[in-house]
Write a structure and sequence with these properties.
heterodimer, A: about 110 residues, mainly beta, 12 strands, globular, B: about 110 residues, four-stranded antiparallel sheet
């Protein structure tokens, strides 16, 4: 079965500090794509960052970066210089080619403290 | 460029009734996916449509159905509503390059069954 595990239901971080959200996944497929989505209280899911499994280089988007460890099936998200607007639920997900569906983790609720 | 539009935003229905939710994808996006989000189960895949064809379906009872029109707009229908159907229903569209490049989500329809 394909699964995503986010072991940290809730986290908090001080404004301007750095925080890392953990994600592990399980799939027997070799061709897949990994994502982090953010869901603020407004409910709309927003794509934060994307990683192609065949690329060894870790993806980076401004203050957001990932640590992708393919052998360990680990895909953590690092948020640098945390801002109050980063307060949200964060979901880790992946899709395997040809399935047309994402597998999501249960989410990590992140609160950035002023 | 307009985003993914879901209507209505909120809905209250009685057990046994049926409901239809609507989703208009981003212009040019031909793939529409539906997810059910609940606190206990997280995000669960319902189905995915591309050019009016259902390409994948999640593990939901037959009471859940969907369709896509020639203009790519999609509807999902839930018949004989149960209390457990109360959830946030999210629609997402993906670009012509595919869902591997990420979804754009709508703001969801919050369905409450009483």
């Amino acid at each position: 079965a394909q699964t995503v595990t986010q072991s940290q239901p809730e986290m908090s971080v001080q404004e301007a500090e750095t925080v890392t959200l953990s994600c592990t996944y399980d799939t027997s497929e070799s061709n897949y794509y990994l994502f982090w989505y953010k869901q603020p209280p407004s409910r709309q899911m927003i794509l934060v960052i994307r990683q192609e499994a065949y690329k060894q280089q870790n993806a980076t988007e401004n203050r957001f970066s990932v640590n992708f460890q393919k052998a360990a099936k680990s895909f953590s998200l690092k948020i640098s210089d945390s801002q109050l607007g980063d307060t949200a639920m964060y979901f880790c997900a992946f899709i395997t080619s040809g399935t047309y569906k994402y597998i999501f983790g249960t989410g990590t609720r992140l609160k950035v403290l002023a | 460029k307009a985003g993914v539009t879901q209507t209505p935003r909120y809905l209250i229905k009685t057990r046994g009734q049926q409901v239809t939710l609507s989703c208009s994808p981003i212009s040019g996006h031909r793939s529409v996916s539906w997810y059910q989000q609940t606190p206990g189960q997280g995000l669960q895949f319902l189905f995915e449509y591309f050019s009016e064809t259902q390409r994948n379906k999640g593990n939901f009872p037959g009471r859940f159905s969907g369709r896509q029109f020639s203009n790519s707009r999609s509807e999902m229908n839930v018949s004989t509503l149960e209390l457990g159907d109360s959830a946030l229903y999210l629609c997402a569209s993906s670009p012509p390059t595919g869902a591997n490049y990420g979804y754009t989500f709508g703001s969801g329809t919050r369905l409450t069954v009483v």
